[in-house]
What we know:
By secondary structure, this protein is an all-alpha fold. It has one domain. Helix content is 75%, strand content 0%. The radius of gyration is 17 Å and the shape is globular. The chain starts with a helix and ends with a helix.
Amino acid sequence: xxxxxxxxxxxxxxxxxxxxxxxxxxxxxxxxxxxxxxxxxxxxxxxxxxxxxxxxxxxxxxxxxxxxxxxxxxxxxxxxxxxxxxxxxxxxxxxxxxxxxxxxxxxxxxxxxxxxxxxxxxxxxxxxxxxxxxxxxxxxxxxxxxxxxxxxxxxxxxxxxxxxxxxxxxxxxxxxxxxxxxxxxxxxxxxxxxxxxxxxxxxx
Length: 204
């Protein structure tokens, strides 16, 4: 996988800018999310993590199609299922990559993540499709938001989580949910930095 000094430095600067905007404004400029995602996705289609362009690269293209068709549940489920089946025949890392695309898109659809959160997560996983990266990203997100939730609500945190879960089940718009304003990108950035440190230490 790609780990040149210039690439790593660029990724860290990009994450810093996106995380700062999310922390300060709970909003991230589209120029910080869409172009990087399209760039790394195009690269992964032409240079698959496993095998040749067919089926490896084609499978990543199907994952992108899943995101583009996610406005309607039946299209999301149908295209996501086809992408997962194709990924199964491509290899374990491709299956991990496509699975992350489907999960992140699902998180966005139900309001658990914002659009910028999902796109940054997918950009990182598409660039470096590794189980350790996925684990550090999700762990940092859970732990970081757990700490933030406790700082703000204390012992009322379970009640707030229950209220949010009820909103998700009732498909309440994300803008009306109680936890919408929790910044996610700073924690995803921390998870990415943790992964890079572990990789430099020879663990990933």
